[in-house]
Amino acid sequence: MGNILKAYVFGECSENFKKFLVKNSIICLEFRTLRESFNQAFKDAIKKKMSINILLSPACSSFDQFNNFEDRGKEFKQLVSEKIKISD
């Protein structure tokens, strides 16, 4: 876990994940949606002014917000595409 700068959790299980991560000394921010968490992660990455990877790493299903893992992945890809177009 040494390479993790910060975790951005969202959804119905976010509180449980946040408790675990904070207990393990990882800075963690909690959001309602994938879009909100991604946007904050992107803003934070830009502020660092260094090469940062933003990783979607689902630890459980997201049926509270998506029909399946494919929908969640499509949303993540869309968010990345939006930021790449803006940043160019």
Describe this structure in words.
By secondary structure, the chain is mostly helical. The chain is 50% helix and 9% strand. It has a two-stranded parallel ribbon with strand order 1-2. Helix 2 runs parallel beside helix 3. The radius of gyration is 13 Å and the shape is flat.
Task: Give the SSE layout.
Layout (H helix, E strand, L loop, with lengths): L6 E4 L3 H10 L4 E4 L2 H15 L20 H19 L1
Parallel strand pairs: 1-2
Helix pairs in contact: 2-3
- Helix content bin: 40-55%
Extended strand count: 2
Order of helices and strands: EHEHH
Contiguous runs where pLDDT drops below 50 for at least 5 residues: none
Strand content: 5-15%
Largest sheet: spatial strand order: 1-2
**What does the main sheet amount to?**
2 strands, parallel
Please state the average pLDDT score.
Answer: 86
Rounded to the nearest angstrom, the radius of gyration is: 13 Å
Contiguous helical run count: 3
Distance between the termini: 31 Å
The SS-based structural class is mainly alpha
Shape: flat
Search tags:
88 residues, mainly alpha, 2 strands, 3 helices, 50% helix, two-stranded parallel sheet
Summarize the structure.
With 88 residues, the protein is mainly α.
